[in-house]
Design goal:
The complex is a heterotrimer.
Chain A lengths: L10 H29 L16 H8 L1 H32 L4 H16 L2 H12 L4 H8 L13 H26 L2 H9 L4 H12 L1 H17 L1 H8 L6 H10 L3 H26 L9
Chain B lengths: L1 H26 L16 H8 L1 H32 L5 H15 L2 H14 L5 H26 L3 H9 L4 H30 L2 H6 L7 H12 L4 H24 L1 H7 L1
Chain C lengths: L11 E12 L2 E12 L3 E5 L6 H9 L6 E6 L2 E2 L10 E4 L11 H11 L4 H14 L15 H13 L5 E5 L7 H18 L2 E6 L2 H7 L2 E6 L2 E6 L1 H6 L4 H6 L4 E10 L3 E6 L2 E6 L7 E6 L5 E3 L8 E12 L2 E8 L2 E8 L13 E5 L6 E2 L5
Parallel strand pairs in C: 3-8, 3-9, 6-7, 7-8
Antiparallel strand pairs in C: 1-2, 1-4, 4-5, 9-10, 11-12, 11-14, 12-13, 14-20, 15-19, 16-17, 16-19, 17-18
The chains are: A mainly alpha, B mainly alpha, C alpha+beta.
Chain lengths: 289, 261, 366
C-alpha cells in the first residue's frame, strides 16, 4: 500500500507514536538515568544527594565482605529457586504439552490465575501453612508428634521454597509453549536412529526446548531479585537479600547508596541473563519456541 | 518414569494452588484465630474488612488506580501498537524494545527511580505518581495483546476498504477497530490486574494517605500478623481479579485471553 | 520503450503515460504507455513477475509511479489517494470484511460515499440479485463457500458503478468447474452493465475466452497488445507464440523472392512465407501445431516438406503427432476424423504442408 495513504504509515501514524513515547522517555528512561546519576554522587543530609562525583558506593559494595555475603546469599537463593523451578516446571510442562488443546488450556489457565493474585496473598498462604500457629504445626501438635511449634519460617529454606512456588507457573508456561512447538517427527526420527527415550530427550527434546527454558529461567531469576515482599514475609528480619538492603537504605534516606545497590541488582540480572544464554545457547534453535 | 513426571506435575499444582485455596477457605472462617480446617462458616471477617477504615480505603484506592492506569495503558498501548504496525527497521526494533522493557525490568528499580525522580522535579501527588508507574507497567501487556490481534488482520482488508472510498481514519474506525477490540480488551484486562496486584513500585510510591490493598495487607502481616481479617482482605483481592477475568471472558472468550498471554 | 498498437477508442477510461515503477533494484513496470478503452473487457496477461499486478495497483493507487502519469477518465490521479479515485476492485482472496454481513459488505462503499439508507438498501438488493445471491444478505462471510464469497466480492464492487472495475486474478481460488462458470458470468455482467473491466490473469486460456483486448506482459513491458484472435493468430514474439498455446519455432534463411512472398530454407526444408524479404536475411518463424497439414509422403511441392513420425499421442478429440524433420522437431495436432493420425504410425514418413498464411514472422532475432 502506498505510504501516503495508509494510516499507520503516514504522518498520522507518527503522531500516534508521540504520547506513549513521551510517557516512556519522561517516566521510564529519564528516572533511570537520574537514578544512575544519583548513584555516582556522595550522600547528603539535606539534599537528595551531595555535589561531588564518586564511585565510592560501588566500591563499597564490591569490596565490603558484608555485601559479598548478601550478594552470594541472593545468588544462592536464585540458584536454588531456578533449579527447583526447572525440575518441577519442566516435568509439569512435559506432562501438559501432549494433552488435547482444551484440557491443556484449562490446566494452563489454572496456573495462570495464581499469577494474577498479588504475591502478598500467596506469601500469606505460606505463612498460614508454615507459621507457628499454621497448618503444619497445628497438625503435628494435634496428633502429638511434637510439643512445641516448629519454626519453619524466617529462613533461607522458607524463602526459597515459598518463592519457588510463586514463580513456578512462569516456567511451566514458558516450557510448555516451546514443547508444543516441537514437531513430533524429530522424536520419531531419533528413535528410528536407535536413540533410547533417554538419549532422545538429551539430544533432541532438551536442546529444542532450550529457548523456552532460557526465557523461563530469565523471568524466574529476575522476579526472584525483585520479590521484596515475599522475602521479607517468609524470611524475617535477618534473612536479608540485596533487594532488602535497597529498602533499608531508602528508609534511611541514603539515596545515592540505595541507587548504587539498585544498579548492582540490575547488573546481576543482566549477568545472569548472559550466563543463561551462554550455557543454554537457545539461538541454536532457529524459529522454534 | 511416567509416574515420576505425573507426581512432579501433581506436586506443582498442589504447591501453586494450595496456599491460595487455604487463604480463601480461611477467609470464611467463623473462629477468632487461625485454625485449619476452619470451625464454622461465617462472613464476619468480610464485614470486619469493609468496616476497617484503612482496609476499605486501600481497597477503593487500588480500584481507582487500577482503573486509571489501565485506561491510560490501553489508550497509549493501542496507539503505540498501531504506529509500529507492519513497519520494520532498526528504529522500530528499538522502540519495541523500549515499550516492552518494563516486562523484564526489575520493578523495584523502576519504583525507586520514580520516587527519586518525583522528588527531583519538585514533588508529585501520590495518586498520580503511582498511576503513572502502573501505566508504564501495564502498557507492554496492552501492546503485546493488540499487536497479536493486528497480526491476524489481513492487510488486504485495509486496501479493500480504501477501494470503497473509506480514508485512513474511517478504515481504522470501521474495519480495524472491530477486528482488534478483543485484543484491546484483553490487554486492558491484564493492565488492570497487573495494577491491582502490584507491590514493588507501590512500596516506594505509596504513603500514609494513599495505600493500595496489597500494601495494606503487607503492613498488617508485618506488624499485626494473626488477624483473620487479612484472609478476608486477600479473598477480596482474589475475588476482584476473578470477577474481572470472568467479565472479560464473557465478552471475548477465555481461549483468546489465554493465548494472548 | 515498448511498442504498442493502440486500440482506437471512442473514449478512454484508463491511460498510462510512460509509467515506470521500481521496487528497490527491480523495475516492475518499464516506461509503459497504454490506453484502455471504455466499456472493454481488458486483460493483462503474463507469467508471475511480469508486472501485471503492479499495473493494476497503479490504477488503484495502492502503488504510485516513480515516473509517468496515470489517468482515470481524463483525470490525472497520481496525487489522488485510492479512496478518492473512481474505481472498484475485486481482490484475489475476496477481502470480505469478516465482521460485517453480506449486505453490510456490499453496502460499505455506498455508505462511505454518503448514499442514503433507503437508496443503499435498494442498490444492495439489486447487486445481490445480479450475482444471484438473493437471500444471503444477512449471512456472514465465513458462512459462505468460496464461490459465494467471490460473488459477494463482485457485488460489492459493481454496486459502486465505478469508472473502471479492477480484478486481481479473481478466479484463482476457485476450482475448475466453478471457474469456468464464473468466467461466463463475469463476461455477461460486464456486457450487461457496460463496465470497463481490467482483468489480471496468468491463465492464457482465461484471457482468450473473456477479453476484448489483451496486453501480454513480460518483464515489465507490454510485448503485444490486441484482440485475442489477433494475438493468437499473429504472435509478435517467441515468448507470446509459446505462452499462448503452443508453437513450432523455425529458423530459416531467405533464398529467393517472389511478388509479396519469399522462399526460405530451414533445417527441415523449403517453405514459402508472406512478405518480401531480402535474400540472405535470417528469419524466425512460428507455426501453430494445428496448422500443420499432414499428407502422404512423396509429393514434392514448394512449401511441402518430409518428416519422420517419432511418436503419436492419442488424446481423444485430437492426436499429437511428434515429428522429426532433418533434426528439427515439429509438433502437429490432428483432428480425430475418419482419416486420422493413425494412418501414420511411429517410424513412417509423412508429408507436412506449411501454408504461408500460417507461418508467422516473429520479431525476435534468430
Amino acid at each position: 500500500m502506498s505510504r501516503r495513504f495508509q494510516l499507520t504509515r503516514s504522518s498520522a501514524g507518527l503522531a500516534l507514536l508521540a504520547p506513549p513515547l513521551v510517557l516512556f522517555l519522561l517516566f521510564f528512561v529519564a528516572p533511570l538515568l537520574s537514578l544512575f546519576w544519583a548513584s555516582l554522587h556522595t550522600a547528603s543530609d539535606n539534599e537528595l544527594y551531595g555535589p561531588t562525583l564518586t564511585t565510592a558506593h560501588y566500591a563499597t559494595i564490591v569490596t565490603d565482605p558484608f555485601y559479598h555475603t548478601i550478594i552470594l546469599r541472593t545468588l544462592g537463593t536464585g540458584a536454588v529457586i531456578l533449579l527447583l523451578c526447572l525440575v518441577l516446571g519442566y516435568a509439569t510442562a512435559y506432562v501438559l504439552a501432549p494433552l488435547p488443546p482444551r484440557r491443556r488450556l484449562l490446566l494452563l489457565a489454572l496456573l495462570v490465575l495464581p499469577l494474577m493474585v498479588s504475591n502478598v496473598v500467596r506469601a500469606y498462604g505460606w505463612i498460614a501453612i508454615l507459621g507457628r500457629q499454621g497448618l503444619v504445626n497445628s497438625l503435628l501438635r494435634n496428633t502429638g508428634v511434637i510439643e512445641r511449634p516448629l519454626v519453619l519460617l524466617n529462613s533461607f529454606e522458607a524463602v526459597s521454597f515459598g518463592l519457588m512456588t510463586i514463580l513456578l507457573p512462569y516456567m511451566v508456561i514458558s516450557v510448555t509453549n516451546t514443547l508444543m512447538a516441537i514437531d513430533a517427527q524429530y522424536k520419531e526420527a531419533a528413535q528410528s536412529l536407535r536413540a533410547s527415550p533417554v538419549r532422545t530427550f538429551v539430544h533432541v527434546t532438551w536442546p529444542l526446548s532450550s529457548p523456552g527454558v532460557a526465557s523461563g529461567m530469565l523471568l524466574v531469576f529476575l522476579l526472584t531479585l525483585s520479590a521484596y515482599v515475599t522475602i521479607t514475609l517468609l524470611g524475617g528480619p535477618r534473612m536479608k537479600l540485596l533487594v532488602s538492603l535497597v529498602f533499608d537504605q531508602v528508609g534511611a534516606f541514603r539515596w545515592p547508596f540505595a541507587a548504587a545497590l539498585a544498579f548492582v541488582l540490575l547488573g546481576l540480572a543482566l549477568a545472569a541473563g548472559g550466563l543463561i544464554l551462554a550455557i543454554l545457547r537457545p539461538q541454536r534453535v532457529q524459529g522454534k519456541g | 518414569m511416567r509416574a515420576m513426571l505425573l507426581l512432579l506435575a501433581g506436586l506443582t499444582y498442589l504447591l501453586v494452588l494450595g496456599p491460595i485455596l487455604i487463604v480463601l477457605i480461611t477467609a470464611f472462617s467463623a473462629s477468632e484465630f487461625f485454625a485449619f480446617p476452619p470451625q464454622g462458616f461465617s462472613l464476619r471477617w468480610f464485614v470486619t474488612f469493609f468496616a476497617t477504615d484503612s482496609m476499605r480505603t486501600a481497597f477503593l484506592r487500588s480500584v481507582q488506580i487500577a482503573l486509571v492506569s489501565a485506561a491510560a495503558a490501553t489508550i497509549l498501548g493501542t496507539m503505540a501498537s498501531l504506529s509500529v504496525e507492519r513497519r520494520k527497521g532498526l528504529a522500530v526494533a528499538l522502540l519495541q524494545a523500549l515499550f516492552l522493557a518494563p516486562l523484564i525490568f526489575p520493578a523495584i528499580v523502576l519504583g525507586l527511580s520514580l520516587l527519586l525522580f518525583y522528588k527531583l522535579i519538585g514533588g508529585m501527588p501520590d495518586f498520580f505518581g503511582l498511576a503513572i508507574a502502573h501505566t508504564i507497567l501495564g502498557t507492554p501487556f496492552v501492546i503485546r495483546s493488540v499487536s497479536a490481534s493486528l497480526l491476524t488482520v489481513d492487510p488486504v482488508l485495509e486496501e479493500a476498504s480504501q477501494s470503497l472510498r473509506a480514508g485512513p481514519w474511517r478504515t481504522f474506525a470501521l474495519i480495524l477497530m472491530p477486528l482488534i477490540w478483543p485484543g484491546i480488551l484483553s490487554g486492558a484486562m491484564f493492565a488492570f490486574i497487573v495494577s491491582f496486584g502490584e507491590l514493588n513500585t507501590a512500596l516506594f510510591l505509596t504513603g500514609p494517605g494513599v495505600t493500595t490493598l496489597p500494601i495494606e495487607i503487607f503492613s498488617y502481616l508485618q506488624f499485626q500478623g494473626g488477624q483473620l481479617v487479612i484472609a478476608a482482605a486477600s479473598a477480596v483481592q482474589v475475588g476482584m481479579i476473578a470477577l474481572i477475568v470472568l467479565l472479560v471472558e464473557r465478552m471475548i472468550g477465555l481461549t483468546r485471553v489465554i493465548r494472548s498471554r | 520503450m515498448s511498442e504498442f498498437v493502440t486500440v482506437t477508442p471512442s473514449a478512454v477510461d484508463v491511460r498510462f503515460a510512460r509509467v515506470t515503477k521500481r521496487y528497490g533494484d527491480t523495475t516492475a513496470v518499464k516506461n509503459v504507455t497504454l490506453d484502455i478503452p471504455r466499456g472493454s473487457f481488458f486483460s493483462l496477461l503474463g507469467p508471475s513477475g511480469c508486472g501485471k499486478t503492479t499495473m493494476l495497483r497503479l490504477i488503484a493507487g495502492f502503488e504510485l509511479p516513480d515516473e509517468g502519469d496515470v489517468f482515470i477518465r481524463q483525470a490525472h490521479v497520481n496525487d489522488i489517494p485510492p479512496y478518492r479515485r473512481d474505481f472498484a476492485m475485486v481482490f484475489q482472496n475476496f477481502a470480505l470484511f469478516p465482521h460485517l454481513t453480506v449486505a453490510d459488505n456490499v453496502a460499505f462503499g455506498l455508505r462511505m460515499s454518503g448514499v442514503a439508507r433507503a437508496e443503499r438498501a435498494a442498490a444492495v438488493a439489486n447487486a445481490l440479485a445480479l450475482v444471484k445471491l438473493n437471500g444471503f444478505a444477512d449471512r456472514f462471510p465465513k458462512q459462505l463457500s468460496g464461490g459465494q464469497q467471490q460473488r459477494v466480492a463482485i457485488a460489492r464492487a459493481i454496486v459502486m458503478k465505478p469508472a473502471v472495475l479492477l480484478l486481481d486474478e479473481p478466479l484463482g481460488a476457485l476450482d475448475k468447474n466453478l471457474r469456468e462458470a464464473m468466467q461466463v458470468e463475469l463476461r455477461s455482467l460486464q456486457r450487461q452493465l457496460d463496465l470497463t473491466m481490467v482483468f489480471v490473469t496468468h491463465d492464457q486460456e482465461e484471457a482468450l475466452t473473456m477479453s476484448d483486448a489483451i496486453a501480454v506482459m513480460r518483464n515489465g513491458v507490454i510485448e503485444q497488445l490486441g484482440a485475442p484472435r489477433e494475438i493468437y493468430e499473429n504472435p509478435a514474439t517467441e515468448f507470446i507464440a509459446t505462452f499462448l498455446g503452443a508453437s513450432n519455432l523455425i529458423e530459416a534463411t531467405v533464398t529467393g523472392t517472389g511478388t509479396g512472398t519469399s522462399l526460405v530454407t530451414a533445417e527441415c526444408g523449403n517453405m514459402i512465407v508472406n512478405g518480401q524479404h531480402p535474400v540472405g536475411a535470417k528469419l524466425k518463424l512460428a507455426i501453430r501445431p494445428e496448422r500443420l497439414l499432414l499428407t502422404q509422403a512423396g509429393a514434392a511441392e514448394p512449401g511441402m516438406i518430409e518428416a519422420l513420425v517419432r511418436d503419436v499421442v492419442y488424446r481423444g478429440m485430437t492426436a499429437q503427432v511428434y515429428l522429426d524433420c532433418g533434426g528439427q522437431p515439429l509438433l502437429a495436432f490432428v483432428q480425430n476424423t475418419a482419416s486420422s493420425a493413425l494412418d501414420w504410425p511411429p517410424g513412417s514418413r509423412v508429408g507436412v504442408r506449411m501454408p504461408a498464411e500460417s507461418l508467422v514472422l516473429l520479431r525476435d532475432k534468430p
